[in-house]
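Re: the 82-residue chain
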Amino acid sequence: MCSIVRQFHNAQEQHEADMRLLLALLLPPVVFFTIGRPWQGLFCLILQLTLIGWIPAAIWAVYALSQYRTEQMIADSVRDRE
């Protein structure tokens, strides 16, 4: 039973990660607000308002999302060690 719950939890986390990646590509500033970085989100919104700034904003959002995932994995492994 525990493995079924764990598989469901992993699938749910993967779905959330996929949705955030899609948001990072389509609406980069929204990603920063969902990962708790509102000031970066505002700056990213200003960057995206220029037509040439949308591509760098999307790249920055994907990079910040990967950093967020890494921080989450580190926090989980530290929590498991304790």
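The radius of gyration is 15 Å.
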